[in-house]
Every structure is written in structure tokens, then in C-alpha cells.
Design goal:
The strands form 2 sheets. Strands 1, 2, 3, 4, 5, 6, 7 and 10 form an 8-stranded parallel sheet that branches. The chain has a single domain, classed as NAD(P)-binding Rossmann-like Domain (Rossmann fold, 3-Layer(aba) Sandwich), CATH 3.40.50. It is built from 10 helices and 11 strands. With 311 residues, it is of the alpha/beta class.
Length: 311
Amino acid sequence: MKAIVTGATGFIGLALCRELLQNGYEVVAVTRMGTGKRDRLLDLQKKIGSVDKSLQVFEVPLEELSNLHTRYDLHADFFFHLAWNGSAGAAREDFDVQYGNIAFTANAIRTAKACGCKKVIGAGSQAEYGVVEGIAFEEKTVPSPFMMYGSTKLAACKMGTVLANQLQIGFVWPRIYSVYGVGENPGTLVNYVMNTLKRGGVPELSSCDNMWNFLYITDCARALRMLAENENIQGICHVASKDTRLLKEYVLEMRDLIAPCLKLGFGVKQTNPRRTFQLQPDVSKLDRIGFRAEVSFAEGIQMKAAEELCC
């Protein structure tokens, strides 16, 4: 089996490349020009001990993604399009940055078709829903995003679905919830709480009374591979765990694992309830294809802590 992965040096992209290589895939990793993170992929190949031809790395701007097939004469089974401009920080609300991602998604679908892929697997987000009171269902819950980022993800999903139907290629849109683990971006809640506690400080937090769902990075990568391989899966699918609970409970568990004697600053920060996510995904669709999260939240935090001690 052979897969093309864009955004291959990102948090999820790198984990997905590892998952695919470990399961016997040939992987074509597509990265941004001059990313400076190419070594991550080369180090990954050395750790896995895969043969030279099992991983190819191409530096291609998103704007030139449609030329990928003609430039390299590629053929593959699956196309994972994870690359996305403006996935963090202020760029999430930048119209022009976000708007361009719709065309990039279309180019990925066209390129996948030209490469003979059976299916395109995108990278949606729970941010497409906005604030949902209660359980979110793929086929029933009406999205109402409040961020430019979530709005563009939703547009890419809808337009990508229509384009894939026109081109007669499979299309899966995983709505990915809160993924954490070794290698995640520095500005996440998990990293902030862990690092503050390790310094002996008091994390300044909201009340954390909103529902949340965490999924460890290796479980996320495995779910994406399974969505590609299952012939019956099309359309939107939540990628999340069955462990949904108050965010406060997750934070308390982190504290108890890292520095049980320290306090937590719940309620120090004020939040707008109209812009506070409530993550309660229905995961029955993922469950039906046999996916089970293998790493508990406590195990994931312990692995993060152990990895950081080694570095």
C-alpha cells in the first residue's frame, strides 16, 4: 500500500507517517518549502528501520500541490491532506489566510484523483460545530462555527464532498477533536498546565466547567489509517475517544500525576460562553469500524513527562 501525506512534519502528520510506515506502507511525505523540519521525517525513518524506498520526502508549496502528479509521476492508494495554513494563533481569524485553504483542499482532491488514489482523507475540526450543548452527531448536529478557522474547515468539507463526488473518488472528512501527546505544539492547554506545574507555579485557568475530550496522538494516527482502509467509510467521522468529561477533571488528573501538592487557579480567567467549546462527540461511527483508544489520558501524560525528561 502507498499513501501520500501533506503536512507531514506537523504534529498529526508526523505521527501518521510513523503509523503508516509501521504498518508496511510506502509513504510520500509532502512538506512546505524550506520547512526546516525535514529532519523529523528522516529521523523517523531511522527509528523505524524502514528501507530507503519506503519514505520519499518532497518539498512542495501548497500553491503548487496540483502539479505534484506531473512533477513526480506519483501513484498511490490513499491521499491524506493534513496541510493547512493558519492552524494556530491569530492566523485562525485571518480571512485571506483561511480562504486559501479551500482551493488547496480542492487541489489535493484533484491531485489524488490524478495519482489513482481510492480515497482522500482530509483533516476537519470540532471547531466546525461552534458551541454545541449536548452530544454532537456527524449526521444530525448543525454546524455553527464562530471562528474563521472553523468556518473555512466547514466550507472545505462541503465543497470537497461535492468535488469528490464529481470526480468519483472516495472522500472522508475526519472531524478531529482535542489531540495531545509527545510533540504537540507548545501553546496547548496540556503543555501550559504541565510546564507551569513542573516549575512549581499555579496555572491560571478558566472554571474549566465545559465538557472535553482528549485523544492521544498515536490513537489519532491509527484512527486516520483505519478510516482510509475501511471501504465503507465516507463523509464526516468524529476522531475522538470515548473519554468525555469535564475539562476540570482532566486538569485535576494532570495535577495529581505531576505535582499533587500544588494548587490550580480555576476561575482566574474569564471566558465567553458563546465562544467556549463543549466537546461531547458521538463516536459510534468510529467504534463500528473497530477503533478503540489504546492510551488512557493518564498514560499519555506520563509518556509526555517521560519524553521531556529524556530530551
